[in-house]
Design brief:
This protein is of the alpha+beta class and 257 residues long. Helix content is 34%, strand content 27%. A hairpin with an 8-residue loop joins strand 10 and strand 11. Helix 2 runs parallel beside helix 7.
Length: 257
């Protein structure tokens, strides 16, 4: 078993912290990414994350706006991160402060993206010449090096260690969390009539060196297909100019809510 005692204690501590409603306000601006802004608070170990409506695709080569996307992604992440904490996956989420803001533990992001593929789609289908929609006989986990100027290249574990992005022990922990997250999300979306095709997640380390799930889980970071119709309900509607992006995002939120 994977350190269940330690994870259980840490999860309980996070749950108690989340239950304590402490007023926090934005202080200094820290960072702005493609979809979020990060601000400091009076607590040096906590930050406020603001979710924007900006949309990007193809390593930010395509840009646009999806109305109220930030509201959907904030609410959906809050719902799923709370449930994942109960499943033994510690994460940076503390509390939802408003439609667009979250209070989170401050973490140093590990410069890796973990991509889980339950159904072949997107870049893997193109890269390997596999028909989109093919269900592989195994669970596939890719890791990518978070480096915009390099196009977030696909790497392996040895590369990650050589780059100083993570240690082998860090990777072991993050892979274990990733598999737990996938099992949970597949079941959660399945109950809502949605197939979890693939998704990407990120991790960070808090002030004590604990590895926490960070960033978000939303239609921006997941491929989600309606189980009955196969309709795309995620950012592919923006990437591929399919239209009705806002409607798809809100439908996903309504189903999992």
């Amino acid at each position: 078993m994977f350190c269940l005692g330690i994870i259980g204690i840490f999860t309980l501590a996070l749950s108690k912290l989340s239950a304590q409603h402490v007023f926090m306000e934005r202080k200094e601006f820290i960072y702005e990414g493609k979809a979020k802004q990060v601000y400091s608070t009076e607590d040096p170990n906590k930050v406020i994350i603001f979710y924007k409506d900006d949309a990007t695709a193809f390593n930010a080569q395509k840009r646009g706006t999806v109305q109220e996307k930030g509201i959907v992604n904030n609410k959906m992440t809050a719902i799923l991160f709370k449930k994942l904490a109960q499943e033994g996956v510690p994460n940076h989420f503390i509390d939802q402060l408003s439609d667009r803001e979250q209070l989170c533990h401050k973490v140093e992001i590990v410069p890796l993206e973990f991509v889980v593929r339950n159904v072949i789609a997107g870049s893997m289908a193109k890269r390997l010449g596999i028909e989109e929609g093919t269900v592989p006989p195994n669970q596939i986990i890719d890791i990518c090096y978070k480096k915009d100027e390099l196009g977030d290249p696909l790497i392996n574990d040895d590369h990650a260690v050589a780059l100083g992005a993570a240690s082998y022990e860090d990777l072991k922990v993050m892979y274990a969390y990733t598999r737990t997250i996938n099992d949970f999300l597949k079941a959660e979306f399945d109950k809502s009539g949605i197939t979890l095709v693939d998704f990407k997640i990120e991790f960070g380390k808090d002030a004590n060196g604990n590895i926490l799930l960070a960033d978000e889980i939303s239609p921006d970071t997941c491929r989600l297909w309606d189980k009955e119709t196969g309709k795309k309900m995620d950012k592919d509607r923006f990437r591929r100019d399919l239209g009705n992006v806002e409607e798809a995002y809100f439908e996903v939120l309504n189903r999992i809510s």
